[in-house]
Specification:
The complex is a heterodimer of chains A (192) and B (173). Chain A contains six helices and eight strands; from the N terminus they run H-E-E-E-E-H-H-E-H-E-H-E-E-H. With 192 residues, chain A is an alpha+beta fold. Chain B has one domain. Helices cover 79% and strands 0% of the residues of chain B. Chain B contains nine helices and no strands. In chain B, helix 5 runs antiparallel to helix 6. The interface between A and B is large, with 40 and 44 residues.
Chain lengths: 192, 173
């Protein structure tokens, strides 16, 4: 037998490395929750949505302002690729959302999720300019209180779906990959 | 030394032609190319889906990511073909740099947008609580330096390809 064909410890190590490389996406794929947020989080069981405020165009706005509207409260980091992709998905579904009573509140994470980045207005203008002047979409910044209440685990791309009667019906992440849940939430509203 | 390196680079197409004349090297190279291409086409757009890989990530595939996937799969395929050819000629083959490049290439997706980093950080933080705050800054850094990481990955793959081509040529000499 040719000596060069006998697996050496180095060859074995390489095979292990290659197997590890191939296994990484499987780990990512199989994992129950995404880094960006809890994709398969248990239903919050219609937990009451706490009252909190955010900053938009220099003004402090309470979530109570949107009483009577189903709300999607979405917290994003402006360096996050999936957040940008999520905004583009919203832009593609703008016509459908415009026919409803829903308000989509997009907030930059408190301290941008721990890493510097552009402001929310620039982020939205770059990713989905058509949403900038749409009254169904509100862009702003998290206050520390809202961030603590709605994102205690400091996820990067996480959203809460809040019904008209102020109950959190769903907590999930990455609208780009979970838009079906948002569509179902919108469809469940009788005024839609 | 510079002249020798330049000479080796200009002779790389000859080494590749020699390797592809060998049936087994061609088969291994082709198979690695196909597997690598499918792998990268599924993994690269997962930065847009929070790490979700599969049909959902394919929907977000851009032209740039397709080109990147093609380039990296071609480099992996060529390196494998040259490595198999070198081994069959009785020489040694090295895949360390290419493999490192292949690993670096999936870092942006896996570190920025999949649960791999948070799971790893959580595991470390269970022993060393101070490490728990590292996850987000690392994710942020990876997400904002994605193209640089792809550049490093391609450079490492090219380096691996060069090493294997040189060995293949020397086997014949």
């Amino acid at each position: 037998m040719n000596a060069s064909k006998i697996p050496t410890p180095t060859t074995s190590l390489r095979l292990v490395l290659l197997a590890g490389l191939m296994a990484l996406p499987a780990v990512a794929f199989a994992s129950p929750s995404g880094v960006m947020g809890p994709k398969d989080a248990p239903s919050p069981g219609d937990k009451p949505a706490p009252v909190a405020s955010f900053i938009s165009h220099g003004k402090t706005i309470s979530l109570d302002t949107y009483k009577g509207h189903p709300i999607m409260l979405w917290q994003v980091a402006t360096w996050c690729g999936s957040c940008r992709a999520g905004l583009r998905v919203f832009a593609q579904n703008k016509a459908m959302i415009d026919k409803t009573n829903v308000r989509v509140i997009v907030l930059r994470d408190y301290k941008n999720g721990g890493y510097p980045g552009i402001g929310i207005t620039k982020f939205a203008t770059q990713a989905a300019p058509s949403l900038m002047h749409d009254p169904h979409f509100i862009f702003g910044d998290d206050t520390k209180a809202l961030y603590t209440l709605y994102n205690p685990h400091h996820y990067v791309d996480v959203y809460d779906l809040i019904s008209k009667n102020r109950k959190i019906t769903t907590v999930s992440s990455t609208p780009s990959a979970t838009f079906g849940k948002i569509k179902a939430f919108i469809a469940a509203d009788p005024s839609s | 030394m510079m002249t020798a390196t330049m000479q080796n680079i200009t002779q790389m197409p000859i080494a590749i032609r020699m390797a592809f004349a060998d049936r087994r090297a061609r088969l291994w190279g082709g198979a690695t190319f196909l597997i690598g291409l499918i792998f990268y086409l599924l993994v690269l757009p997962a930065t847009d889906t929070g790490g979700a890989i599969g049909l959902v990530s394919l929907q977000f595939l851009t032209l740039g990511e397709t080109v990147l996937a093609l380039v990296m799969a071609v480099l992996l395929g060529l390196t494998t073909a040259l490595g198999v050819y070198g081994l069959r000629q009785g020489g040694s083959a090295t895949s360390g740099k290419s493999m490192l490049g292949a690993i670096v290439a999936v870092l942006p997706t896996l570190l920025c947008c999949s649960p791999v980093l948070p799971l790893a950080i959580a595991a470390i933080a269970s022993v060393l609580p101070a490490a728990g705050s590292l996850g987000l800054p690392i994710q942020g850094f990876v997400a904002t330096h994605e193209m640089w990481l792809y550049g490093v990955a391609i450079a490492l793959m090219l380096w691996g390809l060069y090493g294997n081509a040189r060995r293949a040529l020397h086997c014949v000499c």
